[in-house]
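User: Could you check the structure of this?
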Amino acid sequence: MAFDEGLAERIREIVEDWANVSERKMFGGLAFMQEGHMFVGIIDDALMARVGAEQYREALLRPHVREMDFTGRPMKGYVYVDPEGVDSDEELTSWVELASQFVSTLPPKKPT
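Assistant: Sure, the predicted structure tokens are below.
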């Protein structure tokens, strides 16, 4: 599986000055990690955003958003945003910041 390198570059521009953000190839795509937690990623041309349980239903109401069903079953707290939902830099920044805010509530992962 490939991922949209243009979308990856746009995300890199958003997070370039953020502390404790790294990239990791996962699930055949690319994941962005913050404090060891995946917060956004790219599978094919879709953005994956980890919004958490409290924001999940609201996120699904936004245009061009669907359940993340990578394993064939919906993963609560994670959504896919189709390319039309991140056309503008403002839309993409909104998703990246929402996911970052959620994972910032999680305890840092211990290094393996």
